[in-house]
Amino acid sequence: xxxxxxxxxxxxxxxxxxxxxxxxxxxxxxxxxxxxxxxxxxxxxxxxxxxxxxxxxxxxxxxxxxxxxxxxxxxxxxxxxxxxxxxxxxxxxxxxxxxxxxxxxxxxxxxxxxxxxxxxxxxxxxxxxxxxxxxxxxxxxxxxxxxxxxxxxxxxxxxxxxxxxxxxxxxxxxxxxxxxxxxxxxxxxxxxxxxxxxxxxxxxxxxxxxxxxxxxxxxxxxxxxxxxxxxxxxxxxxxxxxxxxxxxxxxxxxxxxxxxxxxxxxxxxxxxxxxxxxxxxxxxxxxxxxxxxxxxxxxxxxxxxxxxxxxxxxxxxxxxxxxxx
Length: 325
Fold this sequence. Notes:
The protein has helices at residues 3-68, 75-95, 98-102, 104-114, 117-125, 132-157, 164-194, 199-223, 228-233, 236-250, 262-324. The chain is an all-alpha fold. The protein has one domain (3-324). Helix 1 runs antiparallel to helix 6, helix 6 runs antiparallel to helix 7 and helix 7 runs antiparallel to helix 11. It is elongated and about 105 Å long. It comes from Phaeobacter inhibens.
């Protein structure tokens, strides 16, 4: 038997073995790239959920201000906000695919609740009574829309904090949860400025503020720093709202008026909410960046591996052709 045939029989199995390992590595790298793409898409969908929550919170605030002022405050702002809410919801729901599949029950509950938004608005536009009850109804109606969105965000986020990416997801959810408490604080306080501040309302505002700080302190723990929350508490937004809280707590529960207006309360509480929104957006941007970076890195590694495998295959084929001559 010619020597080249013997060499071919000896070397060919080695080439086949190398080819098998190359194919196996490509398959693993492709799976890793697909997972990174899933991660990047989930990060974008998480952001869409946060956007819906935020716009509904804004609409709730304007709605409470509108109803509590007998329709004199925020009529134009409320109309504009409703349009913005509708656009955000339509865009977000059309783009949420992976989370909808992974958490079908929570997603279906969100869709079902959002379908009641029109009835909530009709009730607000056609209200024929005044007083605390209608204000509480407005607050509760919007909260029933927001709570399922928070539940979906929590289900998507999970409890994993093992990597920087997963820890940041936890931080974002916690900030979003604190922002919801701040939204309830704005609505509850606005109702109290119009009506008479009761002891129960003072207690509720105190509880909402305490829950916000407890939730935000968890973000400090996740970030591994004790400076983030104290820095927030030194901002003019926090200090301004905290000053109003102090006035409320020191006021006589039977007083007929407070030394600030509904507009001042809305401005201070909205400024605080907007600051939390900025913090949430910063974490979201970091999450999207990390996920996109991982997706790009795995794509680059997959491309390099495929080109290397193609080069190796052509080299092996050339060797076989030479050996058979």
